[in-house]
Write a structure and sequence with these properties.
Largest sheet: 2 strands, antiparallel
Helix content: 40-55%
Strand content: 5-15%
Number of helices: 5
Structural class: mainly alpha
Number of strands: 2
């Protein structure tokens, strides 16, 4: 587990159950694509700990937000309209978890230095004897 019951309480001030932590961690693993068994980077483990705690707090009072919500960007009836911020994966993921997840090492760009494309001969070898 990325976080314990005590860890969630420490980070969010919420008292949760182990079952809720398991469900929240499953969502975090699916969202990030990082199963717990594959994470070795200690910084990523700390970020995933926070993400799981934030997701637990988000799901605690109304877990149906995550499981039963319609996948739409706008919903309305009459004059009442509700629009979700899809850039934060609302309403499924906790906004704080999404923000914390931006710091994962897997979200950074990966550049590889290849050196020169063409290997030129030194100029002095071009001279005619």
């Amino acid at each position: 587990m990325f976080v314990t019951v005590e860890g969630v309480n420490e980070l969010t001030g919420k008292n949760v159950t182990l079952d809720l932590i398991r469900r929240a961690q499953g969502l975090i693993e699916a969202y990030t694509g990082l199963p717990e068994v594959l994470v070795e980077n200690t910084k990523d483990i700390q970020i995933l700990r926070k993400m799981t705690a934030y997701q637990c707090a988000y799901m605690m009072d109304n877990e149906s937000i995550v499981w039963d919500q319609v996948g739409t960007s706008a919903a309305g009836s009459g004059e009442s309209v509700m629009t979700f911020r899809t850039d934060l994966d609302a309403p499924y993921m906790a906004p704080l978890a999404v923000i914390a997840g931006r710091k994962l090492s897997t979200k950074k760009t990966r550049s590889v230095h290849t050196g020169r494309v063409f290997q030129y001969a030194p100029v002095d070898k071009w001279k005619k004897d």
